[in-house]
Amino acid sequence: MSATSSPPPAAARDRVLSGMRPTGELHLGHYFGVLENWVAMQETMEAFYFVADWHALTSEYENSLAIREFIPSLVEDWLVAGLDPERCVIFQQSQIKEHAELHLILSMVTPVSWLERCPTYKEQQQQITSRDLSTYGFLGYPVLMTTDIIIYKARWVPVGQDQLPHMELAREIARRFNNMYGDFFPEPEARLTETPKCPGLDGRKMSKSYNNGIFLREGMDTITPKIKGMLTDKARLRRHDPGNPDVCNLFPYHELLTPSQAREEIRAGCAKAALGCVDCKKILLDRLESFLAPMQERRARLSARPGYVQEVLEAGNARARAVAQATMEEVRSIIGF
């Protein structure tokens, strides 16, 4: 792995951009929901992936030191999952000051009514009562998101179905700028990604705060007792009772990790009571060990190279900054500043 080499020429490749907030440890849900797609896209597209630390401030502004502390481990997990700085640009949002400049300019032309109608704005204000979200930063989150995308003139942005309103708003903001100052920014397009079913070990959402997840930094010594104590089919009280994989909390992990033929055998064995929950968990543990082994090997290599993660970020920042600076030079000229 080289932190300073450039990816192959991308003249015929579309640019894709995505980011992740540094607010906690990454788990299997993050891998299958995001990182697996990122790894695949770096092979076919000009990929820009960023640490969204300014975005994290929109809700975690009272805990800013924790945001900074999570950044190295977040990037390390990305590398462990398979991101390659030779094939993609990995950078830190707050280190590219041009994001702040373009965000300011776009905020001048974005109607407040557009932001207030965003469905997640009122929903999250109602659902997240532990923090004061009545701030401009939270209201203006989609403007910053638009900036992150269009400053690199990215064509594709991988999102889940629930983020489509944000993407449509980003397209509207880019369109409004173009209508005012001339056709400059391409309108980004959503690249829909499936959200895999990856519940927590107790059936709730997988989360560090619930201590119900399988985290990418864990070894089998801590994962094994978690799986052995995992909630399965509540209605299957005895070993000889037939089970129902569709309501079992463990089977979604087989859908992600176990080959299709073996998975169908597990389904049939569970339904006929030929396979017990203990046996099913043993199979899953074997699959998890095989799946995590390459990541653990990469992490061991990274641990032998102190400072490498920072090198990756600095090299990625330089590459991202060059693109952002070129964009802002044109923007200033277009608006007459």
Characterise this structure.
Helices cover 55% and strands 7% of the residues. It has two domains: 15-197 and 306-335, HUPs (Rossmann fold); 220-297, Tyrosyl-Transfer RNA Synthetase (Orthogonal Bundle). It is built from 14 helices and five strands. The strands form two sheets. The protein has a three-stranded parallel β-sheet. Strands 4-5 form a two-stranded parallel sheet. α2 packs across α3 (64-81) and α4 crosses α8 (141-150). The two termini are 41 Å apart. It has helices at 28-44, 53-60, 64-81, 98-109, 112-116, 119-127, 136-139, 141-150, 164-181, 220-228, 251-257, 260-271, 277-303, 308-335, and strands at 15-20, 46-51, 88-92, 156-159, 189-192.
What is the helix/strand order?
EHEHHEHHHHHEHEHHHHH
Estimate the mean pLDDT confidence: 90
How does CATH name the architecture of the largest domain?
3-Layer(aba) Sandwich
Output the number of helix runs: 14
Q: Could you please say which CATH topology of the largest domain applies here?
A: Rossmann fold
Low-confidence segments, given as residue ranges, are 4-11
How does the major sheet shape up? Answer: 3 strands, parallel
Task: Give the end-to-end Cα distance, rounded to a whole number of Å.
Answer: 41 Å
Number of strand segments: 5
Q: Please compute the radius of gyration using only Cα atoms.
A: 22 Å
Task: Please give the domain count.
Answer: 2
Oligomer: single chain
- Characterize the overall form: elongated
Strand coverage percent: 5-15%
Q: Which structural class should the secondary elements be placed in?
A: mainly alpha
Q: Roughly how much helix do the residues carry, as a percent range?
A: 40-55%
CATH class of the largest domain: Alpha Beta
Q: In CATH, what is the homologous superfamily of the largest domain?
A: HUPs
Lateral arrangement of strands in the main beta sheet: 1-2-3
